[in-house]
Amino acid sequence: MRSLAASRAMLRRAAIPLAAPACRTTRHYSLEAKSASTSQLRGLEANRLIIEKTAKPKSLTKPEDLIFGNQFTDHMLSIEWNKETGWQEPRITPYQNLSLDPATCVFHYAFECFEGMKAYKDKDGNVRLFRPEKNMARFNKSAARIALPTFEPASLIELIAKFAKLDSRFIPDHRGYSLYLRPTMIGTQKTLGVGTPGSALLYVIASPVGPYYPTGFKAVSLEATDYAVRAWPGGVGDKKLGANYAPCIVPQQQAASRGYQQNLWLFGEEEYVTEVGTMNMFVALKNKETGQKELITAPLDGTILEGVTRDSVLHLARERLVPEGWKVSERKYTMKELAEASQEGRLIEAFGAGTAAIVSPVRKIAWKGQHVDCGLTEAEESGEIALKMKGWMEDIQYGDEEHEWSYKA
Ligand SMILES: Cc1ncc(COP(=O)(O)O)c(C=O)c1O
């Protein structure tokens, strides 16, 4: 008979090829998320849309009085799902409260994911979405990771476009104004059991918003957070789950209490720079040896959100800055590298990038008891690249430059 030790050794040998394939040098923390839906169920079909218009249209808020996320339009789009039949008919109804049992799983185990995107009005009055397929792809990835159902992206884009058009009177027709759209999915099963939700609700609400910087850019000061992390390898920081956001408020409050507008998320003992508040972070440096200018952002390694703005900035930079001699890099970079570049006068500028502001220039970063200066003079509120990016993106979003990223509703 084989001894226990010999059997264990055999098992260990047998297990090695499965756990660590010889070809892999780095560990890939990508979980194949299975959504709660299967192909036998009814898919999300835009042509089944039922519209019930409001009998009480709201009065419009003066554009200059709009506060982000405070006012909502007349209607909402809702689609229910259940595991027996799949997606039900989409409905646009008057904006209204939800009625949910206190035991509904979203309240207990955070079965919730969302998106943030905008509809813009062009000079001819057309409503335009910006790269909506990117938001849909991310929404499906987020939903699948928490066992909520996935959906047909083209159908939801069509429905969102119809909804945005129906409520388009809420979009002021000046540049800088838009309709912030909030697609949301929640698990609606009434149960305290921890398991796959058997029912879900996908809904979209819309909030008219003004320019992020009504009087022009205001560069922000950041505090590098070294006592808490937002995301980690193998975690869910690259998904837009509501559960990722609530824990970020206390570090944000701490930064604010010391006079900084945002906190900068670092990761690991190396203090890699990851994201700024709820934006992706970009820095522009001059190479120490060659003097070449480099626009850098952290790579998509699972610890940062795959921002639509991040992807757009990278794309535009490769198309329009590389021919001018710039290098564009998705690579890890540390606070130490930034501090060194700043001290040597090689840190050209830094900015956050996200749907709300497009770009948010950074003046300085508090780190280890010092301020890392991000290249702006006292009189400047933005660097050149942030300014250019904002202009390029808005030209596309408002249809002044015809571009495949702009989707006419
Ligand atoms: C954590 C986080 N990072 C980055 C972003 C920027 O993403 P996007 O450009 O898609 O708005 C957001 C905003 O949604 C965010 O919440």
Automatic annotation (TrEMBL):
Cofactor or coenzyme needed: pyridoxal 5'-phosphate
Gene Ontology biological process terms in this record: L-leucine biosynthetic process; L-valine biosynthetic process
Catalytic activity: L-isoleucine + 2-oxoglutarate = (S)-3-methyl-2-oxopentanoate + L-glutamate; L-leucine + 2-oxoglutarate = 4-methyl-2-oxopentanoate + L-glutamate; L-valine + 2-oxoglutarate = 3-methyl-2-oxobutanoate + L-glutamate
Cellular component terms (Gene Ontology): mitochondrion
Keyword tags: Amino-acid biosynthesis, Aminotransferase, Branched-chain amino acid biosynthesis, Pyridoxal phosphate, Transferase
Signal peptide, first to last residue: none
E.C. numbers: 2.6.1.42
Stored NCBIfam families: ilvE_II, PRK13357.1
Name assigned to this protein: Branched-chain-amino-acid aminotransferase
Organism: Stachybotrys chlorohalonatus (strain IBT 40285)
